[in-house]
Amino acid sequence: MQGSGSAVLRDSVLARNNVQVRGHGDRTLVFAHGFGCDQNMWRFVAPAFESRYRIVLFDYVGCGRSDLGAFDAGRYDRLDGYAQDLLDVCDALDLQQATLIGHSVSAMIGVLAAVREPARFAELVMIGPSPRYLNDPPHYVGGFEREDLEGLLELMEHNYLGWAGALAPMVMGDTAGPGLTAELEHSFCSTDPVAARLFARATFYADNRADLARLDVPTLILQVSDDALAPVGVGEFMQRALPGSELHVLQGHGHCPHMSQPGETVAVLDDYLRRRHGGQA
């Protein structure tokens, strides 16, 4: 970006998505949060890399401390709108060959972004990814029947607090402890309900399986052995769909290992980045 107009646009994007930049290093790690969350969910993992990497954290529009006034239902009714948020942040910071670490739906958002602008990303790290949450028998098991998802989204529509209370323990897992589960429930409740409902539908009804064949970026897939939202079989499907990708399965419970198992998550990321970046990590 050049000139005063570009500087204004840059500052607008950084404010809109509550972009935070910290750390030191020639390489950049971009951390992208999952549905119903915000950048604070990375606080147990991101600091481990600040001494060696430039760290970029942000909130999607409608989440965290983003500018809710920028929310546009026409843009954010599909994952492409969130992929544009990510690319806008990369453009505002002039990022090339960054590492994207995306949790849950941000893994697929990262796929969409990397297909559109592959030079932005040197590699993708996907934590708990799923290209399709709905089962598609006989060859694909995403983990949910359509009626189950419809019931969950109907509860969200009519009893938002009840939905948050039901979903948070499922996502966090039964061994994470009440504090983290309560934090996730609070995060769900703090998200604007209109934006959250649209994001939920965009997330849970998406089918990005065909997009995997278009991705040409090295990828690490990090799954948890007992994850109610993204079974290990989904990770195995993705590894087959992404030649040359790596699959690492953490033994544990829940969909948020960067919160419930941060030490192990950091160790896996550290090993992968060392091998990718010649020992820098």
Automatic annotation (TrEMBL):
Q: Name one Pfam family in it.
A: Abhydrolase_1
State the superkingdom: Bacteria
Gene3D superfamilies under this entry?
Answer: alpha/beta hydrolase
* Classification via InterPro entries: AB_hydrolase_1, AB_hydrolase_fold
Where is each AB hydrolase-1 domain found?
A: 28-260
The entry's family comment says:
Belongs to the AB hydrolase superfamily.
Q: Mind telling me what this protein is named?
A: Sigma factor SigB regulation protein RsbQ
Q: What is the lineage of its organism?
A: Bacteria, Pseudomonadati, Pseudomonadota, Betaproteobacteria, Burkholderiales
